[in-house]
Amino acid sequence: MPMETAARAPNVTLDLRPVGYILGLVLTALGVIMLAPLLLDLAVDSGNWRAFLESAGITALFGATTALACRSGHDANDGFSVREAFLLTTGIWVFSPVFGALPFMIGAPQADFTNAYFEAVSGITTTGSSVFPGLDHLPPGVLLWRGILNWLGGLGIAFVAMIFLPVMRVGGMQFFRTEGFDTMGKVLPRATDIAGRLLIFYVALTLACIVTYAAFGMTLFDAVVNAFATIATGGFSTSDASFGKYAGPAEYAGSLFMILSALPYIRFVQMMGGSHRPLLRDPQVRTFLRWLGGSVAIVVIYRLMTSNDGIEPIIRQSLFNITSIFTGTGFGTANVERWGPFAVVVSFAVGLIGGCSSSSSGAFSVFRTQILLLAIRAQIQKVHSPSRMAVIRYDGRVVDDEVLNPLIMYLTGYIVTIMVLSILVTLTGVDLESALMAIWTSIGNIGYVFGEATARTGTMVDFDTTAKWLMILAMLMGRLGMVAVFVLLLPRFWRA
To answer: 304 vs 301, 313, 325, 432, CA distance in Å?
Structure first.
């Protein structure tokens, strides 16, 4: 996916053709990729392959037609304006699930548009919440397609986080852009250089995860789908039991790969260029590992004090499930609610924070949380010593108002959106706890479910249509950043 962004000043008039061209290419590629589950269903003699054939044809045809119709606008431009970057990122995440949902409607499980779109959005945003119970009985092509949606979404999110968001100044992410396409350190001259190295790393990490899972006893099919979901921190598994189908030593392997996938991908790109120090010295990485280790430790201690389970199962389950929630993966091997209210509170807190920026992990991010804590400390110092100049520094660099103000706005939007959408979900007849947890898991792209409304199936299927659309909105807003969505609602954005 070409990623030359913000190479020129904003146009006087908004030209949608460059956006349509790239979006068309993305949809064409999506249609071609649908051939993978098609071939799998053919191989196992499942009649569901026809659904993928029809879906692939519709998607590829629409995408190719759109790209051809908009090609003249793309050829006339040498990059994207900031407005076009907003439209492109939003368009990909809104329209790709429309076509990604087609196999779910045309074939198994014969879902209506709301449920099919919910599942596709959850997959592409790497949220991992589902409205499909009975996964063990679905055709393998459908399960593979869910995993592919996760994997593609995680890769796309990494591109956007490293290339688009710094340009768009969303949520303080411009801190990672000082000139051209430099991202937290070593400058790469073009976005395509970042994209190429990122793709190599992403594929290599996925292959390593597949081999490891297979070594721990998974079938090749389960290893592939679970690896897709792990590396994307997406959480779509092949069974209603989620990762619990392989509970045991495999949980340690899953924890390791979830942690790796929640680290800043740009650091691994730099490692591929021969520079290992940035990863080891990154304050975001150190803080994430420290907070994760502390969260797991206090949950383990709490469970040792309140449970009769053995030490090893407690350590293993706590490590896997807290890591899954912290990284926003959404896999589960145990019911955290049964561990007690303290464990649920810890899970809620780490889910709000999420993994590192420039990864596929969602939620608020470790980087933004660090900056906010530094800002709070600076304000406390000013109250204590009004004449003191409290300068906020992160990784040796001054954090100025250009970074801090969008971040504060992002936090405000994040909290207000959770509150408003949770209240709206309760108006559909859902209890408050289930409503709050549904929006928490959706806007944070976490995937882990809590509450009475999900207790029957472990999915979101029992929520009504309105509640599901509110969760869809939360998933998209959480993945794109609230500001990126709000900007599109401003009339001034569309005026010349």
So the answer is: 5, 11, 20, 30
